[in-house]
Amino acid sequence: MNVAPRYLGRGSWLARRDPRLLVIGLALFVFTVIQVWDLRILAGLAVVAYLYYRSARIPFNQVRLNWGYVLFFVSFVVVTNTLITGGELRGLGAADLHVYFRLPLIGTPISAESITYAIVQYVRFLSMAAVGFPIAFAVAPGDIGPTFARLKVPYKFAYALDLTLRFVPSLAADMQTTIDAQRVRGYEWEKIGRGPIGKLRRTIPLIVPVTINAIVGAEDTIDAMDLRAFGTGRRTWLRELAFDRTDVLVLIGFSLLLVATTVLSQTGHTRLWVPQPLIDLAG
Amino acid sequence: MSTTAIGRDESTMWEVTSRTVVYAAIGAALYAVTAQFSFLLPGTANVSLRPSFALVTFFGFAFGPLVGLFVGLVGNAIADWLSGWGLLTSWNWSVANGLAGLLAGILAYSLRDMIRNRLLLAAVASALAVIVGFIFVFTDMWLGTADSFSAALADNYLPVVISNVIVAAILTPILVAAWEPVRESMGR
Question: Are A162 and A89 part of one and the same domain?
Fold first, then answer.
């Protein structure tokens, strides 16, 4: 069982940036994108997201499954949103819609507006994922703790974050050992139980021993930290982070995008825009 | 010093010691690792049971609200990271998980005089924590993931609350029952 974080963007332009840039950049980009429903503006933001993602040089064959997962999730959200909202789209009434047909049984209108709305949602989510992926694959796992500490997160929280990432591979190994040990005793995780309760019961022989062992084993770490007087004074980090000129320029770029989008949004220029060919299709 | 939320008084419940930090990190890492075990609830389209969620309420219940908050918040973010969804892409869901862990810890303390049976207390505190904590996923309406209140309710809130209440109410008492004798033998 290999669940260790993968540092796939090692050496890329984005990986050489201060990791705080990736976190702040994502936050600024998310707040930018969620204000926009105009496909033309979103297309521009999607290009920015794509270029940003490309600069992390994450090999596609290594993240193909991850993108598949994202596409599946986004498709699910878009389809259910379209079905459940029943054509009530961003302030548009039934009279404003250019309807192609209605879905059988539930009667949801499929219109030029709902198709555009679905495309907009796809573009929004995929853009956000593209800017979010580099945090997962282009930041060295050992930099996560110092990154959040330098973002003014309380140092004990940042230290716990650092510790979490160090525990993940060893706990994954413990999990695999427990699975093997239980298998020797005739337990097969793959032979899943009947019904929800039966399925849950099947996980108990795995989750309980792994959890209790991990807690008991944590005593060594606690003792080591106490012996080094953890928590008695302000902690410093071996890894020092500093923004260079490029980092600052990228941050300014993200900030300007947010400001410009906010102004456009406040002046009503980011509302849902439906391409004329889609309207014409409705006849 | 007692390490369980049940044994804590108000003054130590919010204390952050090396023990708090390590238990929080262990819980979050365990949640991230075990999050791969999930299965679809029969008869539903999108309600999957994630047994590992019980770790959030268990750590909150057993080690205090701050540990529960961290396990839910960071554990879910790292589970998303490992699965490829991105560390902060669904940050509001991680916050909802964290709130559930936080509330499990607070309720373990505030309901202990009303419910004397610890296992029942664990089940009730966990279920209530999930129902209240996951209200935060309605922020999907603001983020655009859900277009309306009905979509957020039907797509997001109800499926996750149903599955997590089932998981938390069953597995949290089992974890508490397994942990209590170990805790006593360790003198914690």
Answer: no
Structural domain boundaries, residue A171: 152-227
Distance CA A86, CA A74 (A): 18
Contact B36, A69 (CB under 8 A): no
Window B:94-123, CB contacts with A under 8 Å:
none
**Same structural domain for residues A128 and A167?**
no
Measured between alpha carbons, how far is B147 from A83 in angstroms, rounded to an integer? 11
What is the spatial distance between Cα A76 and Cα A82, in angstroms, rounded to a whole number? 10
A176 and A130 in one domain?
Answer: no
Cα–Cα dist B108/A192, whole Å: 32
Domains, chain B: 10-186 (1.10.1760.20)
Compare A100 and A283 and report the one with higher pLDDT.
Answer: A100
- Give tens-digit pLDDT for A209-240: 999 999 999 888 999 999 988 888 877 888 88
Question: Which of the residues A53, A76, A116, A215 would you substitute to probe the B interface, choosing the one with the greatest number of B C-beta atoms within 10 Å?
Answer: A215
Find how far residue A111's CA is from the centre of its chain.
Answer: 30
- Nearest CA distance, B89 vs chain A (angstrom): 6
Distance of alpha carbon A113 from alpha carbon A118, whole angstroms? 9
Residues A195 and A113 in one domain: no
What is the predicted ipTM? 0.88
Check whether residue A156 and residue A42 sit in a common domain.
no
**Contact in structure between B71 and B24 (CB atoms under 8 Å):** yes
Task: Establish if A2 belongs to a structural domain.
Answer: no
Provide, as residue numbers in chain A, all residues whose Cβ is less than 8 Å from the Cβ of B146: 77, 81
Query: Rounded to two decimals, what is the model's pTM?
Result: 0.81
Minimal C-alpha gap between A34 and chain B (Å) = 6
Q: Does residue A49 belong to any structural domain of this protein?
A: yes
Is the same domain home to A28 and A137? yes
A218 touches chain B (CB under 8 A): yes
End-of-domain residue from the set A204, A227, A250: A227
- Listed in sequence order, the residues at least 6 apart from B178 whose beta carbon sits closer than 8 Å to its beta carbon are A208, A211, A212
